[in-house]
Amino acid sequence: MNKIIGILAHVDAGKTTFAEQILYHTKTIKNRGRVDYKNSFLDSHNIEKQRGITVFSDQAIFQYKSSTYYLIDTPGQYSY
């Protein structure tokens, strides 16, 4: 079964960090990235690394038990 998870919250709420934890614990990524360390899997664009915030929505796909999940990390800054 396919499922979609959208992560929505205000800026600096930890959406990307939370998404990285999900991906790490489902063994989708090998290392937990951090936005402030500029090594986040989901914030891969240069502008996101420069500003330290998510600018573009990004998706990741992972498997858990018998389901496929589509995880969408969204910007929290209202101007995006």
Description:
With 80 residues, the chain is an alpha+beta fold. The chain is 21% helix and 25% strand. It contains 2 helices and 3 strands; from the N terminus they run βααββ. Strand 2 and strand 3 form a beta hairpin. The chain is globular. The mean pLDDT is 92.
Concise synopsis of the structure shown:
The chain has helices spanning 15-25, 46-51, and strands spanning 2-7, 58-64, 67-73. It is α+β, with helices and mostly antiparallel strands and 80 residues long.
What class, by secondary structure content? Answer: alpha+beta
Relative helix content: 10-25%
Q: Quick check: average pLDDT?
A: 92
Detail the poorly predicted runs. Answer: none
| C-alpha geometry | globular
Order of helices and strands: EHHEE
Total strands: 3
| Largest sheet: number of strands, sense, barrel closure | 3 strands, mixed
SSE layout:
Blueprint: E1 2-7, H1 15-25, H2 46-51, E2 58-64, E3 67-73
Key features of this structure:
three-stranded mixed sheet, 80 residues, P-loop_NTPase, alpha+beta, 2 helices, PrfC, translation release factor activity, codon nonspecific, globular, 21% helix, GTPase activity
